[in-house]
Amino acid sequence: MDNRHIISVSVIVPVFNEEAAIENVLRSLEAELQRIGINFEIIVINDGSKDSSRQIIESFVAGRDAVKLINHPYNKGNGASLKAGARAASYEWLMTFDGDGQHKVEHIKDLLKYVGDYDMVAAAREGYQGPWIRQPGKRFLRWLASYLVDFEIPDINCGFRIVKKGSFFKYINLYPNSFSLYTTSLMAFLKEGLNVKFVPIKINKRGTGKSLVMPRHAVETMFLIIRMIVLFSPMRFILPVSALTFVLFSISFVFDLIAVHLTNTTVALFIATILIFLFGVVLDQLAAIQRHLIQK
């Protein structure tokens, strides 16, 4: 069955200072959705733009019932914009689509064909993925996230995805107001065993403006990943630390046996191993309680 013809989609487009790209993005997005033939609405969130983005969007929205505009009085962040759009959405499925012109509308049909079988269908960028200087940091974060959730993640923060609204709202109080919302929501879905599908896409090089993703966002994302694991699967994080202290204890204990003298270092490492492991067990139980409360 072709899911493209039976679903309704709320498309959320966050915008901040995209005056050179946003009109073309909205026109091509509207035309492609009409061509595909699904029920849709487009929700544009102007996140306190300082250029003429607001005026351009207002002109586009005029006379179009299927296009809505939400204006933030100041810049709240990409995550805050996505959450505002989700709260205003009328339909069961949410599609996020960046307003900078990098995403290609022809890939929408590639994601739509998996809707219904998955809770989240996320685009995974291939080929050009942004400035080369960011790639080492992205690869490290992707490796770390993949290890922590025990799932090979090809792209942790692409802003082009389709997600079931009910599943998205299940963890909305955990989502940050920054760009890290994409990573946080993805990891929440994976750790809770929801069905996630990655679809390879190509993106355009950014032709205008500049990316709002800063180096500090990578650090924030890394700490958010660790926070999410502490919430959803603490032992995945704690066990390696406990194992490391146990190895150090074992080495120190062997040397103490040879010297026939038990040192304070060996005792401290043994106690640390036990305490870290028990701390992990407690965190795991607290995480289970928290997940139960979220699900309610």
Automatic annotation (TrEMBL):
The chain crosses the membrane at residues 237-255, 267-289. Pfam families: Glycos_transf_2 (PF00535). InterPro entries: Glyco_trans_2-like (IPR001173), Glycosyltransferase_2 (IPR050256), Nucleotide-diphossugar_trans (IPR029044). The keyword Membrane applies. Keywords: Membrane, Transmembrane, Transmembrane helix. The keyword Magnesium does not apply. This is Glycosyltransferase 2-like domain-containing protein. It comes from Candidatus Portnoybacteria bacterium RBG_13_41_18. The lineage of its organism: Bacteria, Candidatus Portnoyibacteriota.
